[in-house]
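Open question from group meeting: does this chain pack into something compact, or does most of it stay loose? Before anyone orders reagents, we agreed to write out a predicted structure and look at it together. Recording both the input and the output here so the notebook holds the full record.
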Amino acid sequence: MGRIEISESYQTHPQSSRKQILPGLAISLICVVILLFFVNWQQFWQALQKANYTRVGLALGLTLLWLAVRSFFWRTLLQQKATLKAVFITVNEGYLLNNLLPFRLGEIGRAFLLNRKAGIPFFFVLSTIVLERAMDLILAVCLLLITLPFVAGVEWAKQAALSAGGLVLLLFGLLFFFAKQRAFLIKSFDRAQTRFPWLVRFGGISLDSFINGLSILTDTQLFFQAIFWVILNWLVAIVQYHLFLSAFFPAAQWLWSAFTLGVIALGVAAPSSPSAVGVLELSAVTALSAFHLDPSISLAFAITVHLSQVVMTGVLGSYGLALDGVSLLSLYDQARALQHQKSRG
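Structure tokens returned:
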């Protein structure tokens, strides 16, 4: 169920994959170079040695709570069509894939995996992931706009928040339109197929499944449940970040944690190498510089946060893949094949 065959054209043109990954790698490389220029490595190592690892451990424990709440959130977007266990495992598998693979293939990978284990149409799952990311970006923008009045000299953050907010609201509006006008869109697509035969490769069933996944936008009860879970998810993240931050800056304020989380969330939304290497770290250092904090200590905080998240989701995600009997290589091939087929369409 849900198997995606690898097209011959993809197998014979692997160089296209390399070209596509270059912009993301370039962005990560630029971020790393900037960090190398500003960081005092002696202070960085001292910060790691002096950190309060009891608080780091507590923050790491909160990662489990964050993942659990995240699973409730995504399961609500899925309209309760999968068990909580299946959703929790798939969430971690998706993060593992995003940490290891380019192009954010973890999102396509987890849609494939949940389709495979729960029998939910692939494009239905994919639409909930699009909606999940849109709601995350809205929360990131809101967090920045709420904290900005208390942060001096960060006009760049205001412009970034407003720009991202405008784009996300436009996307959200389009998704809502798709959900409300399902019958009209399906009918229009069917008519378009008669004029443009190449549209047949997308399939009306896939479009129907994708739009069905957005129907939560028109279900008031489920939509408000999703809002509750995503807000709770972000509140847990703020507490988690504050524990991490106070491990390196004992006098850390909640404002620093909330603002930094918002900046990081927008920063890692940009294309980069797998796991947003360099991008997350530079986003954190830049955000904390608004409070005149030492960039070397800020980098130690950022790397600890990043590494902790990668290790936690890596262990749980690896367990999930082993449980599902799926190899990382086969998932990569199938996800890239689907992406390649979509781009050819």
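Observations to bring back to the group:
The two ends are 23 Å apart (CA to CA).
Residues 1-14 have pLDDT under 50 and may be disordered.
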